[in-house]
Every structure is written in structure tokens, then in C-alpha cells.
UniProtKB/TrEMBL annotation, chain A:
GO molecular function: ABC-type oligopeptide transporter activity; ATP binding; ATP hydrolysis activity
Localization (cell): Cell membrane
Protein known as: ABC transporter ATP-binding protein/permease
SUPFAM superfamilies, alphabetized: ABC transporter transmembrane region, P-loop containing nucleoside triphosphate hydrolases
Keywords: ATP-binding, Cell inner membrane, Cell membrane, Membrane, Nucleotide-binding, Transmembrane, Transmembrane helix, Transport
Lineage, broadest ranks: Bacteria, Bacillati, Actinomycetota, Actinomycetes, Kitasatosporales
Tree of life domain: Bacteria
Domain ABC transmembrane type-1, residue spans: 39-324
UniProtKB/TrEMBL annotation, chain B:
UniProt keyword annotation of RNA-binding present: no
Transmembrane segments: 24-46, 66-87, 139-162, 168-188, 257-277, 289-308
Keyword vocabulary terms for this entry: ATP-binding, Cell inner membrane, Cell membrane, Membrane, Nucleotide-binding, Transmembrane, Transmembrane helix, Transport
GO MF term (any one): ATP binding
Organism: Yinghuangia soli
Residue span of region Disordered: 587-608
Family classification: Belongs to the ABC transporter superfamily. Siderophore-Fe(3+) uptake transporter (SIUT) (TC 3.A.1.21) family.
Annotated protein name in UniProt: ABC transporter ATP-binding protein/permease
Amino acid sequence: MTTATAPTPLSAPAEKQQSGWAVLRRGLALSPEFKQGIAVTLVLAAIATAGRIIVPLAVQQTIDNGLRGDGGTDLALVRWMVAGAALAVIATAICSYAMNVRIYHASERGLATLRVRAFRHVHDLSTLHQQTERRGSLVSRVTGDVDTITRFIQQGGLMVVISAGQLVVVTALMLAYSWQLTLLVWVCFAPLFFLLKAFQKRVAAAAVAVRVHAGRMLGAISEPVVGASVVRAHGIEERTAARIDEAIDGHRVAQTRAQTLIALTFPMGEVAVGVANAAVVIVGVLLGVDGQLTLGELVAFLFLVTLFVMPVQFGVEVLNEAQNALAGWRRVLEILDAEPDIADPGAAGADLPRGPVEVRFDNVGYAYPDGPRVLHGVDVTLAARSRVAVVGETGSGKTTFAKLLTRIVDPDEGRVLLDGIPLTGVRFASLRARVVMVPQDGFLFDASIRDNVRYGRPDADDAAIGTAFADLGLADWLAGLPLGLDTPVGQRGESLSAGERQLVALARAYVADPDLLVLDEATSAVDPATEVRIQRALDGLTRGRTAVFIAHRMSTAESADEVLVFDRGVLVERGPHRELVGAGGTYSRLHASWAAQQKPAAD
Amino acid sequence: MTDKDVLRRGMQVLGVAIREEPRIFAAAVGASALYGATTVASALILGQVTDRVIVPAFRDGETTTAAMVTTFAVVFGIALLKALGIVGRRLWAGVMQYRLQATYRRRVTRQYLRLPLAWHHRHPTGALLSNANADVEAAWFPIAPLPMATGVVVMLVLAAVSMLATDWALALVGFVIFPAIFFLNVAYQRRQGPLAMRAQELRADVSAIAHESFDGALVVKTLGRENEEAARFEAAARELADANIAVGRVRALFDPLLEALPSLGVLLVLLAGSIRISHGDLDPGELVQIAYLFTLLAFPVRAIGWLLGDMPRAIVGYDRVRSVLDAEGESSYGDAAAEKTGPAGLQARAVRFGYLDGADVLSDVTFDVEPGRTVAVVGPTGSGKSTLVSLLVRLVDPSSGAVLLDGTDLRDFRAGGVAAAAALVPQQAFLFDDSIRDNITLGLDVPDEDVRAALRIAQAEEFVDRLPDGIHTQVGERGTSLSGGQRQRIALARALVRRPRLLVMDDATSAVDPRVEAAILAGLRDGGTGPSTVVVVAYRKATIALADEVVFIEDGKVAGRGPHQELLESSLGYRRLVDAYERAARDREQNAAAAPADDLTEDEEVPA
């Protein structure tokens, strides 16, 4: 079936989707916990399944042998039989318990392992920071998708085996009583299976519609909360209310439609039981008149029919659930199968020696996957201990330069070397300790300021953190916070202003004590006086290190040893500010425009 | 809460639901009663069929066609009626639940629209969203099993009657087994409830960590903290696994027990029934009837347990929803209309403002803005500028003092009056999940030319035209398909298209490129949308230069007022703030002149 067509690792999208069985095999291999002790679990399951026919069997025995035995009622037999059956019921319950516990243990442990692996792997994929719109779907890989698999295994996977087993055992007992009636019961239930399957498709489609409407409704009800001030500022309460009503009603209608389908599907089993019972009675009586069936056997059939409904209904549901679970499993495996494009060379890699770093860009070019080329032939050496400002208009390639420098992405042309060692050959542990970037948005974790700063160096104590803020000239700001270092920053740091977030991010990078510091417009949202103060502090603090400033305001460029000017992906000028400013090139233009902003037009 | 309290409060919540939707509830309960009655009837009929058709046929070795047809019709007919009952029960239970959800979501969001912004500030966004969504859902969760549970009560009463009518000894077995099933199930729900809730919370934690960690991926990566993040995630994932296993253990224990009990009941019926038959007190048909009834009732009896199991969660959800609906504090409005035309005059009179739990953010802020003038509000980060701005357009009311528009206290305008005269462009632009055009008009009836004119002044026309559907392009939830600077420009166009008599901009171009910002400011100065009074929060000198006057705010107080040049001379704080760059440049030049070789000699590497 799947013969040796060696999968080419590069053409993942062209490759055919893995088949359901392949997914199952790979999935089980990745979570060995599932298979631990599976044999015992299956034996327990077999016993639990067999236990379901005890009651119909006891009914038949009582009626045929206990009540209508040749010597009238045989109470002793009934007593022994009931006692034996009761023991069997209890034994079945105990086996069910043991089986269930084993399933929960194995599946939960196995899936936790899978979840953690996938999570760790996602952090190695560059799509994470390149395609922000995909983040949500990456989150669902390690949450919702894994939950679907869990649900399937716990409520579906083994239950489908048990249900199938139940059908087999029940059918076997039926056959022992009468093959004609067995056939009849199967004929009554076979259409149910196909009918349910057909309906299930429509139910699934309706459920998708409900989810879509639920998403829309959530969006609408977030408007008066997240957009509270906009709604008031423009006095559009009524318009907003109308939008909300529309979304809420859409959701309700979709829910009702799905529920109608479910309500119609659900009692089909009852109808099938009704038909089967009626048919069994009639045919059974005819057979009994013929002497081919005993009274007890006929009554036992009526009990056995009720045991048919559950597995059929369940089987259909599980079939559908299995599709979802396999799809979820496939998505998680896709993550694990994706090659980390920015790979850690690990033990084979080199360590960067401590001390100031020299940076070399060796004819570097970069294009986003399936996107335009954003950097061309950058060939430049930044001397160790130099302070370099990188300037250019939005979209000129400044930020890409910073990302290449810190190996957030790898160039597709040329090489980046630190102290002569190609970046791709440097161990991550060494690289991340020596090279730190402060990104523009100053992302903070939902914790205290202290914990956020410690993120840069986990063993930093309060004194070290305090010193960091003081060194950056931010002691006053910190002292002004009522809770000081204990101040919670809220989700993504949103309890602080954009400028304050940048201050914390700066302190976080500072305690990490890197030898190469890269700041990507790290102070764009703070007021000018504070920015100048930070800038001055940084000038001192970056001595002895190499520092690269991606600059938004030209004041940063003025104080740098060297300025790199980018224009549409090309390094067009380099040199100190005082040389470039009068040269009449791109930098002169950028600087003049910025300077005009700073001066009152009236001057 | 004790169990009694839970039951009492839970019943109150159900009572509210029934009063809201009495008709649908009645229909659902009616259908469910039909289901309950037909369930008992189907066992009765099976007993009758056994006695009247099956046993005689087996005894006599013959039967009649009439008996066969009747049997089929009755057995099948009852099954159809029961199916009908189930359809009605499920359908109307769903309809009732969904209608209640919709009604309460509508009420909660109406309340969000009605309550003042100050109230919003006191409640975290996440909590408000879950009040309107998860809490409403939880509150009406028990509505799904409610009709079934009432139907089961009908079923149990009828079953008890039919058992008593059949045989007291077998009825006795029923009176032991069914209460046992009921209480076992209550115990089950009670054990499982808290565990399941905890698992749910942990699931949310795992999801929150994944969200946060992936959102902050760049920070994680640049600080090399992937393994620590994985460890943090693993701890949560393992804890969730353990919690799920705890839930699983309870299920593993109770599910087999609940299955075994009715089986044991049937066996007891067989034993007791055989004895009764041997004494001639019972016939086989009656034995079959009762045994069959046991198997039919075993499952539905659990519905009452589900209902009780959902109650604690429903009570918590309902209480949270109620606290939003009962929230006091409405902005009061007068009846003044903002009928005037032309630029508005604005006065702040001794305005003081403090959030509930903190010190004053603003105190004694007084200044005038003459009609048609432009005033810049300048101050360091965290000085209270944004708060001041939200007072000027009455997003919040001052704790004391007043803000006047054309001499009228903002609080005296009728609802919508201030919004009709003044427009605010906030720092963080919020866009609706709608087209660009609708985001600008917000329902206002304006021609495309006006929308384009506003976009042009906001320097947004060019990029909007490049979008696939131009001004009709959908921006996605909260405008995520646009960059921060683009969102700000759309928000600016939104304000401009309303031709406000007062335009208030709160650092509204901070994410815009300096050169683009310069063009925007030039457009505003040229009066592209007609004359208006402008208040602008700014850092950049070019922005400040637009202003006829500057209000300098420091620590929540007016630290200086006047034209830019005057302030530069009179206020040291102001000079420090706005001249920071120039001063830095000057200092550098002086240093460079004094010690040209400074940074080359200073940090020689220490030889190892």
C-alpha cells in the first residue's frame, strides 16, 4: 500500500496526507505510555464486555429451567443461578473499574508527554514569530487538538472495542437461541446504522456552524468591553447593541438547528427497538408454536434487543469522533514532524568565548518564505565594542538585520559570523547567554516586575534588579510604583503603559549581562526626557560590549560610533553621524526630516 | 454552601428560568411526561403480551393473526410515542436553554453599554467577557437535563404505582434499588463536580501558558528560555493529567456501580418473582414486566443526578451574571443639545480625578481653550494626560470640578450630545470586525467622498486603496490585519469624518512614521475638514508647534500654561522634557570637543 516512496523532507505540502492508520501508528509510537500494559487492559475489557449478557441469560434460565422445569418451579436452581449471576455482575464491575483506571492513567500520561513535546518543538519553529496570525492555531495544537485525542481514547477508543465486543457476544448468545430471530434483529438494526451515519454527517456540519457563530458572537460581545471607550466617545451604543443582537441571534438559530437534528436522530434507536421487539414477538411466537424456541429464550431476546441500541448509536458517534481525533492527532504530529528551521547545533556546536563580540555579515540576503526579498547583499563588519545605530524608513530591512544578527532567522544567502564563528555553528546555550535582543513591543509575562526582570537572569536577587534599574536611570520610576518590584504587570504587561513596558524589558535584557546587545526601537514609546536619560545610561553601560541600536529617533544615531543606513533592503551608507549628516544622502534626508519634527515650525 | 443551600438556590435559579420561558418549559415537560409514561407503558405492554399472547401460544401451540397484528401495532405504537416524547423533550429543552442564553447575553451586554467607563475600569476585561459568555452558559446549563428530570419523576411515580399494583414483593425490590441508584448518582455528581471543575481550571491554565509563551516567543527565544518555558508548561500539563486522572477514577468507580445495581435488581426480581410464582401469587408475564421495567429505568434515573450535579456551577454563574445586571451607576444626562455650529469652546474648572482605590491622578486642573484654537497637552509618561483627555470628552466624570463645552457642563448634555460635538482619537485604536468604511462611518450616513477626504487627511487613503477591496476591505477582529500605525490612521479618519467641533487626539500618531505624521499634521492645520477646536497630547515638537498654546501637566497638576516659547523660558520642567534631544546633542558636541579620544582609551580589555 505505502511502498517505498522515500519522503522528501523539503516538499512537505506536496506529500500525501498520512493515512489514518499511519497516524495511529506514529501517534502510538510517540506516546509509549498508551501501550504499557495494554494486554491486561484488553483482557479486563473482554471480561467487562462478556458481563453484559449475564442478565438476559439469567432471565432465560429462570423462565425455562427454574419456572417451567419438569418438576414445576425449581427454586433451588433459581437461587443458585441468581447467586452465581450476582457474583458475575460484581466481578464484571470490578474488572470495569480496573480497566477504566488503567485507560485514564495510560492516556493522560501519554498525552501529557505528547503535549509537552509539541510545545517545546513549537518554540523551535520560526513560523512562531514570523506569522503572528498562526499563533492561535499553534496554541490549539497543544491544547484543543490533544484534548480531542484524549476524549476519543477515553470515551471512544476502547469503548468502540467494547461496543463491538458487546455486539459480538450478544449476537453469539442470540445465535445460540435462534438464528432466525438473530437475523431478524440484525435486519431491524442495520438500517439504523446507516440512517444514523447519514444524520451524523449533517449533525457534524451543524456543529461546525455553531462553532463559527459562537466565534462571531464572542467577537461581538467583546466590542462593548474592549471597545468601551470608542463606543462612548462616538455615541454608537445603539449600533453596537444591534450588532450584538444580530450575532447572538445567529448563534441561537445555529444552536437550535443543530439541536433539532440531534433531537430527531436520538430517538431513532427507540424506534428500532420498537420495530425489533414487535417483530421478535411475532416471529418468536410463530417459532415457539413450531417448537423451535422456548418461552425463556423469547423473553431473553427482548432483553438482548435493548443491548443492541447502545453499541450502534455509540459506534456511529465514535466513527465521527474518530475522524476528529485522527485529524487532531495528525495536526500534532505535523508539528513534531516540522523540521526546526533554526536548529540548535547542540553539543556539536561551538561556544562563544566571553568578551566583546565582533560581528560580520558576509554578503547576507534574506527573503521571507514565499515573500519578497527584504535584504540584499549586506556585507559589513561591526568592530567589537562598537556602538552601532541602524536607521532607515519603515520596511527598509532594519528589523530583519536585527533578527539575522540574533539568529531569530537564518539568512538564505551568505553568512553571519560572530568572532569569526558562523552563527549556525554556535550552541544556543552559548549564543543566548552572550547575545540578547530587546524587541520593540516589550512583551512582558503576566507576573510581577521582579519575575519579569528575572526572566533575563533567573538568579538575580532584588539588589541586583534594583541596581539594574538604577544603572539605567530608572530608580525614580521604580520608586514611584506603590508596589515596587511586586507590581503585577497584567497580561502581556498591559497594566503598564507601552513606555513602561519598554523600561522593564530593558532592565530584563540588562540583567542578562550580554556581550552583544541588540535594541530594536526599544525606547520608541517613552517620553523624550526619559529616552535621553536611558540613552545616556546605555552609552555608559554598553562600554566594553558591542551594541546595536535599531533606531526610530535620530538622537540615537547621533551618539553612535557608526551608523548603518538601510534603504529598501540595501545597506546604502555607513559611517559616523557627523560624516553622514552632511553627505547629502539617505541619512541626510532622514535626519533633516526628523530634525524638522523636533523644531517648532515657527522657528 | 451546604447541600440544602445549593438545592434551595439552585431551585431559585431554575424558577427564574421557568418564569422567563413558561410556555416552552411547559411544552418540554409535557413531552418529557409523555416519554416517562410511555417508558412505563412499554414494560406494561410487554408483560401483557407475554401473558396474553406469548404464554398461551407456547402452551397451546397455536396463535391468531389478530393477536399478532394487535401485538405489533401496540408495541410499535408505544415505541413511536416514546420517540415523539424524546424528540419534544430534547428539542424544547434546547430551545429553552438557547433562548435563555441569548436573553441574558443581550441583557449583560446592554448593561456593558449602559454602565459608565469608570465601572469598566474597575473590572478586568477577561472577567467581563466571561460574564457574558461562560457564566451565562453555566447559569443555564441545568436547563438541558431539567425536562428529562421532570419526566423521570413522572416515570418513577407511574412505575411505583404499576409495581405496587402488580406485586408488593417486587415493588419492595424496586423501592430499594431505585433510591439506591438515585443516591449513588448524587454521590457520584458530588464527588465528580469539584474534581471536574478543577480539571477545567487547569485546562484553562495550560491554554493560558501556551498562549502567553507563544505570544512572547521572541523574548523566549532571544533570552534562550525555551527549556524553562517547556518546564513551566510541563508542570501545568502534568498537573492537568493528574486532575483528569482523579476525575477518571471517580468515573471508573461509579459508572460500573451504576450499571451493576439495576442488574442486581433484576436478579433479585427473578429470585423474589420465582418464589411468588411458586406460591401462585404472580404470573410469568408480570415477572417479565417488572424485570423489563428495571432495565428501562436504570439509565433515566440518573438524569436527576445530572441536574443536581450542574447546580453548583449554575449558581456561581447566575450570581456573577446577576452582579453585572444589578450593577448601579449610570451616567446621568441633562437635556442640553449641542446645537451650535463652528468650533467649540472648552473649559476645565478645578478638575480633580482619582480612581476608586488610589491617590488623585489629577487635581485642580483649570484651563480654557478658545473656540478654533489648538492646545497641546504635554507631560512626562504617567503624568495623567490620558485621564485628562477622557474627562474632556466625558468618558469619565471628574471627582470634583467640571468640564464645560460652550459654557455647558458636559453632564448637562443629553445622551449622545457630547459625542455629537466632540471626537476622540485614542492612543490605542480599536477597530470593529467590519469593513474599513463601516469602521469610519460607524453607522453615520456619509457619502464615499467624505470618507475618502477623511482618509486622505489621515494619510490612509494610499494604503487603503492598495488593500484588496479598498475601503470595503474587512479588517478582521480588532483590526488585526492592519499594523498599529494603520489602525491609528483609520481611527483618526473615523474622528475627522464626523467634522467634530472639538477634536481630541491622545498621542494618536505614536505608531505612525515621523514623516507620515508630519503630513497628517500639515493636513489638520490646513483645516481639511472644516474649522474645529483641537486638543492634542504630544511629545514631538512639530506637533507642539501646531498648538497656539501648551498646557504642561506634571504629577496630575497644571505646571505651566502658555505659548510654547513662553513656557520654554518660564518652566524648567517643560524645557527639560521637550528639549531633551537637542540638549543631548549639544552635550555630546561639547564632550566631543573636550575629550575627542575619550572612548578609545577608556575600556582596554584586561589581559587574561
